[in-house]
């Protein structure tokens, strides 16, 4: 299985974090269904051009969160994630992104009103017909 994970080598975010955030989103959004077999650690490391240790950390972190299950000798699978747990992960990810955006806005000396307008513009852009979803 090929996972649609994109790595930005110019980003200040560590590789493991970029992979973890994207893989978590694929699971929480339901794009990866319960029981889906993930690529082996080596396969994913090769696909995203990173170390095996990086992918091992991602899989371990997501397993500790209850999103993945590893079966010795058969591989790593998407765990059963209940609706409440799915919602908790989804909202936590969105809140984190919004808090980062607000922090960036404050560093750039944006007012609260300016940030609200920028947020509304981003919503209009992403939810208009033909916009990025």
Q: What is the H-and-E element order? A: HHHEEHH
Q: How much helix, percentage-wise, in residues?
A: 55-70%
Number of helices: 5
Distance between the termini: 23 Å
Please state how the strands of the largest beta sheet are arranged side by side.
1-2
Radius of gyration: 17 Å
The pLDDT mean sits at 92
Compute the number of strand runs.
2
Query: What are the segments in which pLDDT stays under 50 over at least 5 consecutive residues?
Result: none
Describe the sheet with the most strands. Answer: 2 strands, antiparallel
| Helical/strand content category | mainly alpha
Shape: globular
Q: Could you tell me the strand content as a percent range?
A: 5-15%
Summarize this, please?
The protein has helices at residues 15-28, 41-48, 52-64, 83-107, 112-127, and strands at 68-71, 75-78. The chain is mostly helical and 133 residues long.
List the helices and strands and how they pair.
Layout lengths: L14 H14 L12 H8 L3 H13 L3 E4 L3 E4 L4 H25 L4 H16 L6
Antiparallel strand pairs: 1-2
Structure description:
This protein is about 55% helix and about 5% strand. It is built from five helices and two strands. Strand 1 (about 70) and strand 2 form a beta hairpin. The longest helix has 25 residues, at about 85-105. The radius of gyration is 17 Å and the shape is globular. The two termini are about 25 Å apart.
